[in-house]
Amino acid sequence: MSLIDTIIRPDVRELAVYHVPDATGFLKLDAMENPYTLPQSLRIELGARLADVAMNRYPVPSYTALRAKICERLGVPAGFDVVLGNGSDELIAMVSVACARPGAKVLAPVPGFVMYAMSAQLSGLEFIGVPLRADFSLDTAAMLEAIAIHRPAVTYLAYPNNPTGALFDADDMCRIIRAVGDTGVVIVDEAYQPFAQASFMPRLAEFPNLIVMRTVSKLGLAGIRLGYMAGASALLTQFDKVRPPYNINVLTQSAAEFVLDHTAILDAQAALLRVERGRLSAALAALRGVTVFPSDANFILVRIAPQEGAQEAAPGQAANDVFANLLARKILIKNVGKMHALLQNCLRITVSTPEENVMLLDALGAILASR
């Protein structure tokens, strides 16, 4: 028996490493990033500020100033605070660790963000996935039944959902939050809120078991890795106990505080991307063999139909072929067909600038026309 077999958990040995492809030289439309940068004048000002950061010192672990600015600028209701994480991934991990009692379960609609299930597994929690309907809407009856059976400690509702882009019905979500009640916490993941313009943040006071989780990544700050979650102070205190003490580095802290003084620029960029989302959706829908699903995020999910009169050599082959052809043209999108049976032949495309969207459309149109 090898050293790895001796010391590494069997379920960890069976996992694949989370793969992020090298996008050097590619048109990068796979990771839901904001394609816009800060104006040159602000970049110069930010550079000067970062130059003065005391990188020889540990961060102040309370992050009081940054937390206050997030609450003030990003719509956290009065009387509520936030816990910070190195991206949403770390927040999800913190929740899993804090709630990992024997027999505890995590529940979420599927397909959804893969880290809900992965983090649960790594913390020894059982993950219960409830399939969405075929149109990617929430199967509320199935969710309520699963809650009654499993009494999950943690329930995730992404609003909008990734990778589908769907914005679930708010009344259905309220029914789910109430059904969970005082036996579990419900985390509404609003990573794409700037593009949805709908939020449960103002409703925190209605639901003692509600946590709203967000990230600044989609606002144009993916590189600084900063997530936050807001909720009742009693809940936040428990999650804060398992937060690594220096999880937000001084450069992230300084950059976030600076950019949050200029949220109007980020809001304007989000507005541009919402307009482009509509244009790109319409253009994609006009292509032969492409089904476009409604999106309230900064990405669009499409399904590629098999070639007319042709039998697919394997399930999902139509999308696989289109993905490979785009890759050959140095265009990187996300092939999500293997994530879940409901996503067969589906591709996820990040909404970008008008110029980059045209490049994607020209390439995709040529590929589809040649089939």
Can you give a write-up of this model?
The protein has 371 residues and is α/β, with parallel strands linked by helices. The chain folds into two domains: 3-38 and 264-369, Aspartate Aminotransferase, domain 1; 57-261, Aspartate Aminotransferase, domain 2, CATH 3.40.640.10. 40% of the residues lie in helices and 16% in strands. The chain contains 14 helices and 13 strands. A seven-stranded mixed beta sheet has the order 2-8-7-6-5-3-4, sandwiched between helices. The longest helix is centred in the C-terminal third of the chain and has 23 residues, at 263-285. The chain is globular, with a radius of gyration of 21 Å. The N and C termini lie far apart (51 Å).
| Cα radius of gyration in angstroms | 21 Å
Strand order of the largest sheet: 2-8-7-6-5-3-4
Q: How many discrete domains?
A: 2
The number of strands is 13
Proportion of strand residues: 15-25%
* Proportion of helical residues: 25-40%
CATH class of the largest domain: Alpha Beta
User: Which oligomeric form is depicted?
Assistant: single chain
CATH architecture grouping of the largest domain: 3-Layer(aba) Sandwich
Mean pLDDT: 95
Poorly predicted regions are none
Give the distance, in angstroms, between the N- and C-terminal Cα atoms. Answer: 51 Å
CATH-derived topology of the largest domain = Aspartate Aminotransferase, domain 2
**What profile does the largest beta sheet have?**
7 strands, mixed
Shape: globular
With helices defined by DSSP (H or I, 4 residues minimum), what is the helix count?
Answer: 14
CATH homologous superfamily descriptor of the largest domain:
Type I PLP-dependent aspartate aminotransferase-like (Major domain)
